[in-house]
């Protein structure tokens, strides 16, 4: 089984945002919200950076 670049990005984002949510906030509701926020930022910034690299290369 091979994982795509986007799949690897999403998997890393999931694990990192889970750790960030648990360690950076106090209540479960805040943990979940911060984890989702971090996940969205990770994936969004990955997509933006990949498009920038695409336009720089072409």
Protein described:
- This protein is mainly α.
- It has one domain.
- Helices cover 86% and strands 0% of the residues.
- It contains two helices and no strands.
- The longest helix is centred in the C-terminal third of the chain and has 30 residues, at 28-57.
- It is elongated and about 45 Å long.
- The N and C termini lie far apart (31 Å).
Keywords:
58 residues; mainly alpha; 86% helix
Structure summary:
By secondary structure, the chain is mostly helical. The protein has helices at 5-24, 28-57. The mean pLDDT is 96.
Q: Secondary structure elements and their pairing?
A:
Blueprint: H1 5-24, H2 28-57
Helix pairs in contact: 1-2
| Rg | 14 Å
Strand content: under 5%
Q: What class would the helix/strand composition place it in?
A: mainly alpha
What characterizes the major β-sheet? none
Query: Which residues form runs of ≥5 with pLDDT under 50?
Result: none
Shape: elongated
Number of domains: 1
Arithmetic mean of pLDDT = 96
Q: So how many helices?
A: 2
- CA distance, first residue to last residue: 31 Å
Helical amount: over 70%
Question: What is the N-to-C order of secondary-structure elements (H for helix, E for strand)?
Answer: HH
* Tally of strands: 0
């Amino acid at each position: 089984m091979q994982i795509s670049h986007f799949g690897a990005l999403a998997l890393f984002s999931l694990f990192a945002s889970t750790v960030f949510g648990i360690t950076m906030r106090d209540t479960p509701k805040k943990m979940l919200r911060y984890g989702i926020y971090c996940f969205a930022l990770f994936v969004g910034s990955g997509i933006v950076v990949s498009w920038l690299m695409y336009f720089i290369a072409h």
